[in-house]
Amino acid sequence: MQGKYKIDFELFNSINPRTMTKFVKKDQVTASWYEIDAKNAVVGRLATVVSNIIRGKNKTTYTPHMDDGDFVVVKNIEHVKFTGKKFQNKKYFRHTGYPGGIKETTPLKMHSKKPEEILKLAVKRMLPGGSLAKKQLSKLKIYSGTNHPHSAQNPKVIDISKLNNKNIIRN
Question: Taking the model in full, what pTM does it have?
């Protein structure tokens, strides 16, 4: 009976190098720099563009378990917008670690203290959890105003209004 159900496992165990997925090695990874102007940009739409770039999903060599993303410099973060009434009504929760230590804040309060934290939290929540996400999040540089110290890297300018007309709010 054993010979009746014999399967040739040679067929399943053979590895054809032509059909295997090509992964990039650590020394083959090259990082570019991009600059995005966040003036009148919608937070969620801006965060999706940024998270795709810092994860490396815009490259053909995207590998989920490696950090092959690019650096992103976001300027004019104080002019970022929310749609609807989210600027007043949305709540961010954090916990101090002590019993009953849940704290809540709104984007209105965060905008007055640390405006860059709004985008950083949105991008952080779009990344997978773990140490790889921390490494990828360190490639995000957020600045208030138009000046930033990364002009020596010659970042490529991305105009998010040209990607989709819903990416910015026109008043």
Answer: 0.84
